[in-house]
Amino acid sequence: MCSGMALLEQGGGTRKPAAVPSSLTHSALQRCRQFGNRIPSTRYGTRAQMNVHLKGRDLLTLQNYTADELKYLLWIASDLKQRIKHKGEYLPLMQGKSLAMIFEKRSTRTRLSAETGFALLGGHPSFLTTQDIHLGTNESLTDTARVLSSMTNAILARVYNHNDLDLMAKEATIPIINGLSDLYHPLQILADYLTLQEHYGGLKGLTIAWIGDGNNVLHSFMASAAKLGAHLRIATPRVRRNKPGEKGRQTSPRLVSNTRALVKGPSWGCPHLSGVPLFTAKVQNPDPVIWMQSRSDSTESNITNGNT
Predict the structure, then answer these.
(1) Contacting residues for 232 by C-beta, under 8 A, at least 6 apart
(2) Do 247 and 239 contact (CB within 8 A), yes or no?
(3) How confident is the model over 55-106, as pLDDT tens digits?
(4) What's phi and psi for 46, nearest 5 deg?
(5) CA-to-CA distance for 102 and 80, rounded, in angstroms?
(6) Kind of pairing, strands 176-180 and 98-103?
(7) What is the greatest pairwise CA distance in the chain?
(8) Do 188 and 301 form a contact (C-beta atoms < 8 A)?
(9) What class is the 2-180 domain?
(10) What pLDDT, in 10s, does the model give residues 191-227?
(11) Which DSSP string corresponds to the chain?
(12) Which of 70, 117, 157, 162 is least buried, going by the fewest C-beta atoms within 10 A?
């Protein structure tokens, strides 16, 4: 998990505001030295020379992260992928740490990638559903956040209501990671950015076309694309007046306004909205085209080359 290693430093379950060293965390570096590992650059990017502050931070939305912090997370992810998956290195950076995984909604990719990634780093993930714990019945979200804070080092939650994540972040003393909510899906977008970075060699200057529903995945794109220097072109279905149930298919006007407020200058990185997929995909000539396949309980994104 690219976020977990940067957000966690040492046990005790306490959120700490101290700065993260320029590569990994202090305890992680100690473990690297113990196993004779150095922190190299990868062919997917170089380590950002910056002083970021990630230890103990929540990951609820990418809107709360700066461009340098997003680049740092992507560098960590690409470095770990190269060293663990391709080189077969053993890096128990999360040894002795546990991750509580609360899943109100079913998942294949998010659950498997989180469990596998945390385990590969030496940590212990605990999968919890509403049938396993007293979430929202005998125990409130406040009680759950406090109890898990005393027993685990971080919480990854996949919930229906984003407000539940905000409440958990307020009450918990350990980092809260958004595994999906009705508003945002930051882990999905970080994975998509890593794929784009590997394929195109970088994100700055890319024009990304989004064709599909205006959902949580798109909202995470909107909250971060401009920070990484990418242009975003959006085509979402228009809501038909006789189909009030389709209200969730369009992009949130409030989030569009917030995204444009992040953009410096008249057009750089600003999202352009259209109801015509062909215009978005061909006339505006994007680099990758991303379309959405929607299901009743989740969504998945597909990336293709805009030139094909």
Answers:
(1) 207, 208, 210, 221, 222, 225, 226, 269, 270, 271, 272
(2) yes
(3) 999 999 999 999 999 999 999 999 999 999 999 999 999 999 999 999 999 8
(4) -110, 160
(5) 25
(6) unpaired
(7) 65
(8) yes
(9) alpha beta
(10) 999 999 999 899 998 888 888 788 899 899 999 999 9
(11) -HHHHHH--SSSS----PPPPSSS-HHHHHHHHHTT-----BTTB----S----TT--BS-GGGS-HHHHHHHHHHHHHHIIIIIIT-----TTTT-EEEEEESS--SHHHHHHHHHHHHTT-EEEEEETTTS-BTTTB-HHHHHHHHHHH-SEEEEE-S-HHHHHHHHHH-SS-EEEEE-SS--HHHHHHHHHHHHHHHS--TT-EEEEES---HHHHHHHTTTGGGT-EEEEE-PPPPTT-GGGGGGSPPHHHHHHHHHH--SSSTT--EEES-HHIIIIIT--SEEEEEEE-SS-EEEEEEETT-
(12) 162
Contact 74, 2 (CB under 8 A): yes
Task: Encode 141-162: b = buried (16+ Cβ within 10 Å), e = exposed.
Answer: beebbeebbeebbbbbbbbeeb
User: What tokens does 98 get?
Assistant: 């546990």
Report the amino acid identity of residue 131. Answer: Q
Residue 121, both tokens = 């780093």
Could you tell me the two tokens for 82?
């190269």
Q: What pTM did the predictor assign? A: 0.77
Cα distance between residue 15 and residue 5, in whole Å? 14
Distances (CA, A) of 172 to 13, 53, 150: 9, 19, 9
